[in-house]
Amino acid sequence: MASDPSVEAVEEGDDYYHVRFRDPDEFDEIRTPDWADEASDSVSEGSEVRTGKEEGSDDWEVQSVLIKKSVGEGKAREQAEEIVETIRS
Length: 89
Hints:
The chain has helices spanning 37-43, 73-88, and strands spanning 9-12, 16-20, 29-31, 48-53, 60-68. With 89 residues, it is α+β, with helices and mostly antiparallel strands. α1 (37-43) packs across α2 (73-88).
């Protein structure tokens, strides 16, 4: 993973807040990897991490984090940032 991303947007979905760190259009491929589940669930139960890979690169970057809507928008942003920090350490 490259540099620490900052939150670009928080979008409200049906069940989750989508905390976006990078534009999905930057990536050739996006996945929700199993290896990120433990890190994300340790911060926010039921959260998901989406990672993306740019064409020609072997590096996977955090594209967005999905946090259950029940925590509220402000807390979703905080938890998403903590999840990214947990993954990087």
